[in-house]
Every structure is written in C-alpha cells, then in structure tokens.
Automatic annotation (TrEMBL):
<dbReference type="InterPro" id="IPR026289">
    <property type="entry name" value="SBP_TakP-like"/>
</dbReference>
<feature type="binding site">
    <location>
        <position position="186"/>
    </location>
    <ligand>
        <name>substrate</name>
    </ligand>
</feature>
<feature type="binding site">
    <location>
        <position position="249"/>
    </location>
    <ligand>
        <name>substrate</name>
    </ligand>
</feature>
<feature type="binding site">
    <location>
        <position position="223"/>
    </location>
    <ligand>
        <name>substrate</name>
    </ligand>
</feature>
<keyword id="KW-0479">Metal-binding</keyword>
<feature type="binding site">
    <location>
        <position position="165"/>
    </location>
    <ligand>
        <name>substrate</name>
    </ligand>
</feature>
<dbReference type="InterPro" id="IPR006311">
    <property type="entry name" value="TAT_signal"/>
</dbReference>
<dbReference type="GO" id="GO:0046872">
    <property type="term" value="F:metal ion binding"/>
</dbReference>
<dbReference type="GO" id="GO:0055085">
    <property type="term" value="P:transmembrane transport"/>
</dbReference>
<keyword id="KW-0732">Signal</keyword>
<dbReference type="Pfam" id="PF03480">
    <property type="entry name" value="DctP"/>
</dbReference>
<protein>
    <submittedName>
        <fullName>TRAP transporter substrate-binding protein</fullName>
    </submittedName>
</protein>
<feature type="binding site">
    <location>
        <position position="224"/>
    </location>
    <ligand>
        <name>Na(+)</name>
    </ligand>
</feature>
<dbReference type="GO" id="GO:0031317">
    <property type="term" value="C:tripartite ATP-independent periplasmic transporter complex"/>
</dbReference>
<dbReference type="InterPro" id="IPR018389">
    <property type="entry name" value="DctP_fam"/>
</dbReference>
<dbReference type="InterPro" id="IPR038404">
    <property type="entry name" value="TRAP_DctP_sf"/>
</dbReference>
Amino acid sequence: MIRRRNLLGAGLLGIGGAAASFGSPDHAANLAAPAISRNRRRLNMVTTWPKGLPGLGRAAERVAERILAMSEGLIEVKVYAAGELVPAFESFDAVANGSADMYHGAEYYWTAKSTAYPFFTAVPFGMTAQEIMGWIDFGGGQELWDELSAGFGIKPLQGANTGHQMGGWFRREINGLDDLVGLQMRIPGQGGDVLRALGGSAKSLPGGEIYQALQTGNIDATEWVGPWNDYSLGFYREAPYYYGPGFHEPGASLAVGINLKLWESLTAGEQALIKAACESVNHLSLGEFTYQNSVYLDLLVRKHGVQLRSFPDEVVARMAEASRDVRAASGRDGLEKRIYESFEEALNKMAGWAAVSDGPYYAARELGRKTGG
C-alpha cells in the first residue's frame, strides 16, 4: 500500500504546473506534450448509500465526475455503493486505514468514534442547510471538523446537503407522547437519542437494509431523507403515515472524507481542485433536493394515497426539550466541548436572523397562497 501510494503520488506532480499554465498565452503550445507525459491517478470512493440511489448516491457520483473533468482526466475516482467494496458503516475505517481513498456518507454514522460527529451532519432542532454551510464555511466549523477528523487520519469536506428532511414513515398515527413509548424506529445520530429519551427504541441501519426491516416488522417506523429519496426506497408501501417536520435533521450535510496521508501528498492546486468539486456538488444538491422533493411529495400524496401528518404540539415540545439535553451531553469536555460550544453560538446567532427573515417570510407567503395572493 505504501509503495502504491508513493508511486501514485509521484504521478500527480505534473498537474499543478499544467493548471498554472491553463489560460496563459502559451497554453495551446504547452498542452499537448505535458498531457502525454503526465501520469493519471485512480482513486476509489466507498459510500454509505445503496447502489443507484438518486440524490445521495448521485451526489457521490457527481463528486467523482467533477474531479475527473476539472483535472482534465488526470484524477479518476471510482465510486462504490455500500457493500460493493466495504459495508456501509465500515466506510470510515476503510478510509482511515488507507484501504480506501475516500468516502461519501453522513458523519453522524461515526458517533461511536466521537459524540461530536453529528454536529457536522445534523442535530435535533439544529441548523438548516444554509446555517450549517454558514457555520462550517465562515464560523469556524471547518477548522474544528479538520481537527476532529485528523485524529482518525481523515480530511473532511462538505459533499452534499439534503435540505430539510421529513420526520419519518409510521405504521400507526402518533397522537401523543404515549404513542412513542416502545416505538422501534430507524433513526441514527442524536435524533435516536431523543427518541430514547421519550421512551422509544432507536436503531441505526444503512439505507439498503431499512425496507426489509420495516416490511418484516423489525421496526415500526423509519426516517430517511424526504419524498424524493424515500419514494425510491418504497417506504410508502409499508407505512402509510408520513410525518413532518423532521425535527432531527433540519438540513443534513453529507461529507466527503479523504485519507489524510493521501490529502497531504497532494499539491495545493490539487487540493483546491477537489475542494471546488465538493463545493459545487454541495450547493447543487440543495437545489436539486428542494425541487425533487416537491415533485415526489405530490406524487406520493396524489398517486399513492400517503397521509401527511404533523407531530402533535406536546410531542414537538418534549422533543425540543430532550434535544437541548442531548446536544449538551455530546460536548462535555475537550475538543467535543469546543465543537458543541461553537455550534451553539453560531446557531443562536443565525436563529436570530431567521426569526426576522425566513420564518416570517414563509408565514407571509403561505398566507398569500391561502388568500389567493
């Protein structure tokens, strides 16, 4: 493995120079010869997503496609769905130990590694998509994330965002807190901790295993993403009640994790190229999820008779109370405490802005729609 990485690392040395000359007056004359002599590099990316999954799975493929295009074919990334190279939840370890080069997944799957990881995907009653982008890119989140993941030999980057998620699919209606007692639900991360605090039982299952668990009765309910991705996995066939809003994931950020030794072997130009590819997919995915969720929500309700429900007020209030305790318990000391404190400080700042911007606007727009405005 060391020999392979040394050889492959040497093959990238010409990329930075080629990028620097691109667009210069001499570019046309210089392009042909270096392009012939430069070596190409092949990397592998493991994911936590089922094969062929739209949205999440497509985001991983887009990252690979953009790296290939932006490097002019010099860096090729082969994407493997969950289970093709390693099981979904072994993706982190595969990249950390160097048996895989990159992963695409959700950081809250790695809670056993650190209780701070969910803050970089989503936490209950936490940040929306725009807010988590704001914290990571401008509020110190990336630096803390880098510090956390470096301890495991990984360089993390944002690689997609689903936007607001739904609360989940339920076999029976939730009319009050008593209906959560004993409920067995697929819900990972801190959302699962909140459910446990309310008397339920939470399980963390990869996407490819959820439908069977729901079908066989091993779980009573499941959350996944939203109408678009949920439709593709067929949950509506087993659980007719679709609850929202998703208190547990108000704007789930997905990650690209890169083996740190591999990352440090790259030139600054190569690193910038990969960052740019991930950033473009991260922002593109948010618009795609927003639009496609609207299309598939209509399809689920109109064609398949899915029954939309909202959680009762007493359930929401208790979830919010439990969520504050769960978030605080995840950051009691050291780096995890610094991450928690940074997240909460940024959340409070941005929530103040949302209270006078997004929230009132959505309410006003809905009022206008109802009155024909």
